[in-house]
Amino acid sequence: MANLLEWSRAYSGRLTKDDKNISFAKTESLAKRLSNEVATGKLPFLSMGYRARLEQDMQLLLPRVKAFKDMLLLGIGGSALGCRAIQRAFAPSQDLPGHTGPSVWVADNVCAEQFEALLGRLQPKDTIVVCISKSGGTIETISQYFLVKDWLKAALGDDWKKQMLVITDLEKGYLREEATHFDLASMEVPDNLGGRYSALSAVGLLPAAFLGIDWSALLDGAAKVAAPLTQASPNLDQHPSFALAAWAHALMRRGYSQLIYFCYIPQWATYGPWFAQLWAESLGKEGQGSQPIAATGVTDQHSINQMFLDGQRDKGCLFLTSRHQPQGRSFGQDLPEKWSWLRGKKFGELLEAEALGTRMALCKSQVPLVHIDAEDCGERSAGAMMMLLEAATLFTGWLMEINPLDQPAVELGKRLANTKLGAKGYTQEEADLKTFLEVPRQEQPF
Ligand code: PA5
Q1: Could you tell me if 85 and 186 lie in one domain?
Q2: Model confidence over 157-172: pLDDT tens digits?
Q3: How many folded domains does the chain comprise?
Q4: How much distance in Å is there from the Cα of 387 to the middle of ligand 1?
Q5: Burial of 81 (0-12, 13-18, 19+ CB in 10 A)
């Protein structure tokens, strides 16, 4: 039993098996690069050298954190999406009626109304606030930090410090300065571990542990996939993540500009936005890349699937299922004649049949499709899938000859927003803003 990639329909449409050919020399040079970057600590998401320290920190901090009923998580992008995906996949009961156990609330936007609603319902005395920022200076997160700090202070006075924990760089950044200054509890985002590759560090795993999720199994699943890549002479050619990268790169070269992540493990649906961020921020560079589209089976069969099947032929698909989904309850034997073929069947059989139907329809529409078939929908399998996709993203970036670990283009909007609010030192941005705002508006009422 294992998690599987199924390739029989991967090279279809305009894509042929010849498209994936990567020369021996190229594969060898990437394998050397991998070895070198692992050895020099540039790829901690793969080598997971931070695990021992993480386990120690968890042991120390978890009892204190678990004393609270609610966790309010402040973060954005890679500092929020992995956590939310893990919560929805493995602690979905917090969002169901009558829940009484621990809950994690992720505040990852700048929406005064939602923020007020959250703070209005949470009780400061029952809430541990976890502020997550690798850089320690992201305005969306830091602004929430300031507001929540005041909210805690108003209720708890000086004890606010006991209910604020930060996850950030060990040495650098504003949040680290705050942690040191106020002696706040803290955990590290290891060096070189970029936001979107950090879900399997304290960033995603402290909230997971708080919710009682088996976070060690997530790490174990990931470690098993990463192991062949972190050994001294990695055999890149044989690794499924490299095969995925070769396929994804071939798709781009053949003009497939979109990549669907179609998730038929409904409880894992929130991995869609997690994957979309991983793929888009890593690979949207220098006019290249493919646009990720997160879709959920079966819901999106009644929505964007029409476009997948009969819109432009510009999409490849990662199609995710699990062989061992809980099957749920059975239909009664007394169903009306019109529906008799459902009698005695389990609800889960419907999901399986619909997944097969949609996969086949996509294949018939010549959508190049790789089927990711997870052994089950537990933490270990999820960790394995996360590592597979992270490694595949890295290697796709290397094949594209771009840097999959940075995100320079998104910085401009942040600098402009800071300038608009009066931040100093942005001379060029100030001038650009002025020019932009001088263009006469062309308004049309509706
Ligand atoms: O993947 C990334 O690096 C980004 O999406 C970051 O996670 C996001 O910008 C938040 O950054 P930080 O964790 O530094 O606050």
Answers
A1: yes
A2: 999 999 999 999 999 9
A3: 2
A4: 18
A5: buried
Q: CA 437, CA 109: separation in Å to the nearest integer?
A: 25
Quick check: CB of 196 below 6 Å from ligand 1?
yes
Domain with 141, as residue range(s), is 44-213
- What is the percentage of the chain residues whose pLDDT exceeds 70? 100
In this structure, the strands spanning 315-322 and 369-374 are parallel
For the stretch 209-265, pLDDT in tens is 999 999 999 999 999 999 999 998 898 999 999 999 999 999 999 999 999 999 999
In a domain, 431, yes or no: no
Count of helix runs (H) and strand runs (E) in the chain: 16, 10
Question: By the 8 A CB rule, do 209 and 71 touch?
Answer: no
Q: What is the pTM of this model?
A: 0.96
DSSP 257-291: -EEEEEE-SGGGTTHHHHHHHHHHHHH--TT---E
Q: Which residues are catalytic?
A: 281, 302, 414
Residue nearest to atom 2 of ligand 1 (CA): 195
